[in-house]
Amino acid sequence: MLTLASALSDLVGGIYFSQGRSTVVLFNSFYVVQFFLLTWFYFELAKTKKSRTTVLGGLFIYAVAFVLVSVYLQSFLEYQTFLWTISGMIMILFSSSYVVYLFSAGTVMQNHASFWINSGILYYFSFNLFLFVMSSYVLTKLEPQIGMLIWSFHNANNVVKNILLGLGISSSAAATMVK
Question: What pLDDT score does 68 carry?
Fold first, then answer.
């Protein structure tokens, strides 16, 4: 579902940009959907009470941040870059915690679907965190062509993330076919 939502958001965003239309609501909506889908993913992976508490705590922090950012800092009708940064930090926490869990459990990583998916999530949010921090400036203060050039770094990271997600999905499908 995340890959489809991402592809659809990128496609519609590209069309909007080429038509000179605003992508603000589209991108803000995508980041909310992405956060909830990934939170659901990590909640399903959570095997211990501590890990489930971590996921629920991250969800609570996001919900509070969403309200505070929307009311006091950046409305939903402007790029909510503060919220993107907060959600990125939460996803880095979730994905790093899962890496620690996998290694401490002695899990064999090869052909482990959630390992590849988690790697894509960790890669994407880690490499884009700096971009999210400066995105308010990039998206609103720079010339649109320069802003999109810098934002293309995000798109390149998105491609790598999607390749890692694809590896996870394909290894999951292969594991299902073997059973």
Answer: 98
